[in-house]
Predict the structure.
Amino acid sequence: MTVKKAVIPAAGLGTRFLPVTKSMPKEMLPIIDVPVIHHVVQEALASGIDDIIIITGRSKRAIEDYFDDSPELEMHLAKKHNSDLLDMVREISSLIDIHYIRQKEPLGLGDAVLRAEKHICDDPFAVLLGDDIIKNNTPCTRQLIDIYNRYRCSVLAVENVPEEMVSSYGIINGRPLEDMLYLLEDIVEKPKVEDAPSTLGAIGRYVFTPEIFDHLKRTPRGVGGEIQLTDGIRSLKNSQNVYAYEFRGRRYDTGDRMGYIEAIIDFALDQDELQDDLRAYMRQVLER
Ligand code: G1P
């Protein structure tokens, strides 16, 4: 059984991006004209996932609307014979069937993942956090699934984070096994840098065996009074091997203002119709 299902937790309040997230889900922030969550869904699809569950909360309706049909808009574009835009709009709603589950209270990432248990049943599954966009020819989730297929164990993507950022991540202690791959010995949620076992941080891409649910159910509230996914992983690794993988690719933390700006610039530089004008503008700005 390989990994065909994915959970995208998108219930967070987006406090790092206030005030815009007062009335708009942070997952809908546009990277030029495509919302962050569209990139995340595309990564899942390109990794072989065919069943997606998005965990939403109050004021997240815009996500459901985005992936749904939009009959009025489609009729309008058809009348105007704007077939390029019409195809683009239709393609979004036909990407994949997405199921939505609401997390009634903001009890943390661990609790959000646990909401998906009934839908996932006894299957392995991926988790993709809705903030991170990762660019690479082989999608990050695919890289994790390939490791799952070899070892049949849970695996999380990690990367070296700067010391001043250690307290924003789940930080691992891993025993090197082979190139880029570690056996997870410990993971701590948002430690102070002096207490951190390393600078390898979990970056929001995971593949889990379904046993993670039993561990999450037993996980008490941790950092910030929330049920932490990190604490569930810590408990899981005591009963089965868990791996950590230094993935290949460039990650943008779009929930962080600087990460968001970097994503917009890099994505614009990738577009033929924008790159020359943007380069010229940036040269001008740097000379000011
Ligand atoms: C969450 C996880 C943390 C992980 C991070 C990656 O934290 O709790 O372990 O390292 O995502 O982005 P959050 O960013 O939701 O505070």
Notes: The chain has two domains: 5-255, 256-288.
